């Protein structure tokens, strides 16, 4: 019987162990998509206690606690930090076979050197031991990134963000490169006329361009893309149900924007024409800058109105959606490809039933300009666990080139999430090692090791070509 979380954790054979130990384990981390607050890195934040660094904002844990019938007081309410941690410790044994169980214990082991299993009985000791460490210089945000060999981090930033924290970090020469990512989802929300008018007013203020129609809106967006680029940004990101790619008439879109902004009427027709128009033009702007565009597709968000009203978005009430994806992806990519303005692209799928759809769609638009221009991205959100990662990599292997994969990311708001890269690397090595042991791949360790190192680090390093500013 194997020991829980031993050195061969998730590695079922000697080849897998060798690949992990020699070619994956010590690779630096390029975390090219996350939701870490840049101000916490810029200020080199020191957290108050284990609850502050580990539970605040973690809607993965919140969902599990609610499923156990734990009162919201101990999740997002006014209970003390210690009470909240104790409730989480109570919940942990019940999360067995959920990735939270693995992540929890990997994080305790890698950051705090704790091999104990977390439960009600061990909660007090673990809480006290961790809190003693959290107040030391080794547990500031920047020190944590250095400890985990994080070379690059890309945060997720709104179009109108000042990027002041990124500028501060760049000026100071922070050891970990911290770059912004352009996230323009809010500008697509034209169906909410009041919100749209207010947002365009803010966009006008930061660009000194009065947004009043389609042309001025696109001019303002280009202004912000230039600003983000000058501050090191090399990626955009969109969190959408599906890619918007219906036919549109620019004159009609222009008139609709003018009508909404003037307050004379809300957007009368389906907003899809507007969204499709803006997304198309953004794609062209990304290509002109040499950026990579990312699409996180398939989430059904904010399904619980009561909790949404009480807690706001990202409170743990989202799920996998069953949206149709293939046709809209085809229309969007083909429209850009015809003009040779299709940027490097990463597609993230949230519905496992669509893995093969995404893998084959990405393969349609590689053009020989560079290896892996179109990427089927890593398992995302509900799929960034062992089964989800394996299915994503198997679909990519069967229908594309696993060797060109740019690998894992945390997609997290927590500075303790970097062991997710270790988790991914172990799963990757076990997949390949098992094939070798089964005689399905040759025992060519130098070549397979190179492939593993590329997927864990070098593919991303070469694909994004980040440069400190």
Please outline the helices and strands.
Blueprint: H1 14-24, E1 29-31, H2 38-42, H3 50-54, H4 59-67, H5 81-91, H6 99-112, H7 123-134, H8 141-147, E2 150-154, E3 157-158, H9 164-172, E4 177-179, E5 182-183, H10 193-207, H11 214-230, E6 235-240, H12 250-262, H13 272-289, E7 292-297, E8 299-300, H14 305-311, E9 319-320, H15 326-338, E10 344-349, H16 355-363, E11 374-376, H17 386-399, H18 419-437, H19 445-464
Parallel strand pairs: 1-2, 2-4, 3-5, 6-7, 7-10, 10-11
Antiparallel strand pairs: 8-9
Helix pairs in contact: 1-18, 1-19, 10-11, 11-13, 16-17, 17-18
Strand order of the largest sheet: 6-7-10-11
Instruction: Give the N-to-C terminal Cα separation.
Output: 51 Å
Q: For the record, what is the CATH homologous superfamily label of the largest domain?
A: Metal-dependent hydrolases
Structural class, please? Answer: alpha/beta
Gross geometry:
globular
Query: Taking all residues together, what is the mean pLDDT?
Result: 96
Which CATH first-tier class of the largest domain would you pick? Answer: Alpha Beta
Number of domains: 2
Name the features.
469 residues; alpha/beta; TIM Barrel; uronate isomerase, domain 2, chain A; 2 domains; four-stranded parallel sheet; three-stranded parallel sheet; 11 strands; globular
3D structure, described in words:
The chain has helices at 14-24, 38-42, 50-54, 59-67, 81-91, 99-112, 123-134, 141-147, 164-172, 193-207, 214-230, 250-262, 272-289, 305-311, 326-338, 355-363, 386-399, 419-437, 445-464; strands at 29-31, 150-154, 157-158, 177-179, 182-183, 235-240, 292-297, 299-300, 319-320, 344-349, 374-376. By secondary structure, it is of the alpha/beta class. The protein has two domains: 14-45 and 140-464, TIM Barrel, CATH 3.20.20; 46-139, Orthogonal Bundle (uronate isomerase, domain 2, chain A). The strands form four sheets. Strands 6-7-10-11 form a four-stranded parallel β-sheet, with helices on one face. Helix 16 (355-363) links the parallel strand 10 and strand 11. The radius of gyration is 23 Å and the shape is globular.
